[in-house]
Write a structure and sequence with these properties.
Two copies of one chain form a homodimer. With 117 residues, chain A is mainly β. The first copy, chain A, has two helices and seven strands. At the A-B interface, β1, β2, β5 and β7 of A face β1, β2, β5 and β7 of B.
């Protein structure tokens, strides 16, 4: 792994629960999922080069794909102007979603504008 | 606007504060920002066809671009397998970020993998 920008890391803002939302995007451009990271899971992500999240429902660190094999290799981590959202570009080795879909957003559509179809 | 899928709307899960995260993506594929929507701001979004958020810091509804002119015309709204994150594709009429950048994620990079460059 290339060195992390330590000054940039210090600019990150974790919420009252110590978490930050992480948007995961395939290098194809498809948004795959959004999950939460703790400072520890972000450090693990940087250490191993694969996404590691914090499960709010189970209150535990979760290495994505450790069980299923569908890991996400981190290509780039950006964060937004407020420092409170991460955008992570990944190379995925399988479906992001537990349903077997490429993206967790493949499931349901709330609205499609008429002029796009 | 085309009709909203009312059954899909009922599947959405707002958090304890009545909010849901909304990832905003340009039809170019670039992720522009993440902000929060209340049920009311989501209904307004669907009504006017432009993104309307809920500002957690100001505790108020916020029609993106109302002041700056940099509105976001909604093309598609998807949500994830848990029903607790929105992904909104938009046609933007100007920069998404208050800094003047196209994307709120143009500002800082925490990490870039060596094999991507």
């Amino acid at each position: 792994m290339s060195p992390v920008d330590k000054e940039a890391f210090a600019d990150l803002k974790f919420d009252a629960q110590g978490l930050i939302p992480a948007i995961v995007q395939s290098i194809s451009g498809r948004v795959l999922m959004m999950a939460w990271m703790s400072e520890e899971s972000l450090r693990m992500t940087l250490e191993i080069g694969e996404t590691v999240f914090f499960s709010r429902s189970r209150s535990e660190i979760w290495h994505k794909g450790k069980a299923s094999g569908n890991t996400q290799k981190v290509q780039k981590i950006e964060f937004d102007c407020d420092g409170d959202v991460l955008l992570i570009q990944v190379l995925e080795s399988g479906p992001a979603c537990h349903t077997g879909s490429e993206s967790c957003f493949d499931v349901e559509t709330l609205f499609i504008a008429e002029d796009t179809e």
